[in-house]
Amino acid sequence: MMNAQAMPNVDEQTLLDIKGLKIWYRTTRGNAQAVDGVDLIIKRNEIFGLAGESGCGKTTLARGILGLTKLPGYIEAGEAIYYRQVSGSSTVGQDLLTLPPHEMRQMRWRNIAYVPQGAMNVLSPTLRIEKQILDAIYEHSDMSKEQARARMLECMEMVGLEPTVARMYPHELSGGMKQRVTIAAAISLKPGLIIADEPTTALDVNVQQVILQELKDIAASLGVTLIYVTHDMAVHAEMADRMGIMYSGLMVEVAPVIETFKEPLHPYTQGLIASIPAIGGDRSRMVGIPGNAPSPLAWPTGCRFHPRCPKAMEICRETVPPMLEVASGHYVACHLYPTPISGATPASGATPAPEELN
Ligand code: SF4
């Protein structure tokens, strides 16, 4: 098997181990360093929420893991080791970033499925729903026609679609139904990991609520790990077990979702949470984050958040804060928290050392 690796430093709960991942875009004005040194471990059977403002690199990261980085984007450095069981309890890791295209195509759908941004527009308008789902099943599995059809109908039922929908064309479906079709297709081959990138953004709030709950239930019942990408912190509060906050191409805080909301440590995370509108709450207390996100063509020195940070100190302008575990399972990259708790080690999500950025 290509790129198979032993599993020396990750525990059995590790599904995906992203190390030092940098995804850059070549532009006429230099390299846009969209993802710039992300380390992250995704565990089996969890819902991991990936958050941050538009342009922070979260979609680039999600697509990069799936081998969908397109020119002028390219992998500058790093690994994304996916661990899967091959027989019995034996597990091998494969670096998704170095798999040949035909092997990556096999991994997609079978092992890792993607529900993309704007999923409602990815369905071909000229093909019946059944053709679109069945073609994907045939291409990525060796199921017979009967097995594939049975599996399609099973998945459609799981997302609340009547069997009659299979014979319809996309224009005959509502936005919510089209979204359900993309989810049914994503789960059709029982992948170990689904990456859903803002799948409900275009839906009205009521439909969004129903689909989020369905996605959560499906992940639990199938034992699928879900990486859910959205800037919407309220959705993360509802969906995620753990979450990671990205800012300017880096992970700045990783923690269980309850801790993220109860005790956000990074000033950027605090700003994101403070800007969530509360229904019936005191709107005068809703605070935005001042300033604009910097350009990936020229990140600020030191902590990249320092030009916008209300708590910035002198050291912040010069030195990149390392990611440290400051409480059990709670990692933050900020000079306000210079000392890890006793026995804690720098997170595997560590921000690169300053010299690595130069
Ligand atoms: Fe703010 Fe400094 Fe922490 Fe960055 S390192 S978030 S500038 S306090």
Q: List the strand order in the largest sheet.
A: 7-8-9-4-10-11-13-12
What global shape is seen? globular
Quickly count the helices: 11
Low-confidence runs of at least 5 consecutive residues: 1-8, 341-358
Helix content: 25-40%
User: What is the count of β-strands?
Assistant: 13
Radius of gyration: 21 Å
Measure the end-to-end span: 36 Å
Could you state the order of secondary-structure elements as H and E?
EEEEHEEHEHHHEHEHEEHHHEEH
Ions, cofactors and other ligands present here are:
iron/sulfur cluster
Backbone structural class: alpha/beta
Largest sheet: 8 strands, mixed
Q: Quaternary arrangement of the chains shown?
A: single chain
- Average pLDDT, to the nearest integer? 87
Percent strand? 25-35%
